[in-house]
Amino acid sequence: YFGRIWKGRSFLHLNHRWQNLCFQYLVDNLNSETVIDVLLGCEKLQVTLPRSKASSASEAVAALVSDLLDSAMSFLASQLDQVIASQSFSNQGKGLALNLSLLEDVLPSVVHTVSADLGCRTLMRLYELLILLTEFEHDKANRQAPSTGVYSIETLIDEWNERFINLVRRLYELCDTHLLHHAASVVKCDGWNLLTPAMQQRIQNRMRMRFL
């Protein structure tokens, strides 16, 4: 919602103190359920603000948007596992999944930066989500199509989008590769015990191969 307000003339000409208070409120309330919406809002503002006629005012707001984007990205990089497990992330994969482009651009690069511990926790969140998505695909394959051959709007909205399923698979593969690359650190981190025996075995095998 802040994206609609911040691009408006009233906010552009608001006292800087009040603008900063609005900015700080969003930063203070960043959590796993809000960070994706903040990222989406920032993306839209970066497109719309330069078109404003009030250039000096829009530049000041653009600076706030840039700072807010940095804060959101920092939160995402430190709490990736919680974001993956959030209802907000799951909601992006339902129906037409119109906002997936941003997540497809941002999340893969974030995966490459996570620590060993966060990587383990993120991998397990992705693993759990993949189980859910696999069950959905299995049910969908066995589901009988309506006699009209056309699914209702409600059904389409509730269904997972194929692009989202592919994104989760890609993130899982990237996270898995990241952990294999940092195997020596992974086996010593707190998140190691969260991994399945099969995951642990693969990582240990990778370590052994390096010493051969």
UniProtKB/TrEMBL annotation:
InterPro entries, sorted: BACK_BTBD8
Occurrences of domain BTBD8 BACK (ranges): 1-84
Highest rank taxon of the organism: Eukaryota
Pfam family, one: BACK_BTBD8
PANTHER family: GH15728P (PTHR22427:SF7)
Protein name as catalogued: BTBD8 BACK domain-containing protein
Species for this entry: Plectus sambesii
